[in-house]
């Protein structure tokens, strides 16, 4: 059974840094896109950054130049380095990975449990 385990997150002052990581495990045949979404109170979930299987990355305009997404295919992990954090980055961050499991005939999207990032001013 596929599992996504997130780590990182927490409370940081504006201008600080945090690193989020997400590890996928459990009957994985192949992994396609990996990325992070976030959801602030009262707002819709939005894409933060995504990396495809070829290593091409996409970032939300609001985080370009501050956040860096990377993946380790050998370890089935995706990490988000967040620098120069702002109060408006405060949200619950969710890992999202497209995985073809050995138990399914097609790839599916999987979500992590979410990790809180709070940036104080």
The major pleated sheet works out as:
7 strands, mixed
N→C terminal distance: 41 Å
Q: Which band does the percent of strand residues land in?
A: over 45%
H/E topology pattern:
EEEEEEEEEEE
The mean pLDDT is 95
Task: State the helical fraction.
Answer: under 10%
Tell me the Rg in angstroms: 14 Å
Q: What oligomeric state best describes the polypeptide chains here?
A: single chain
Q: What is the approximate shape?
A: elongated
Number of strands: 11
Which residues sit in consecutive blocks of at least 5 with pLDDT less than 50? none
Number of helices: 0
Structural class: mainly beta
Account of the 3D structure:
- The chain is mostly beta strands.
- Helices cover 0% and strands 59% of the residues.
- The chain contains no helices and eleven strands.
- The strands form two sheets. Strands 2, 4, 5, 6, 9, 10 and 11 form a seven-stranded mixed β-sheet that branches.
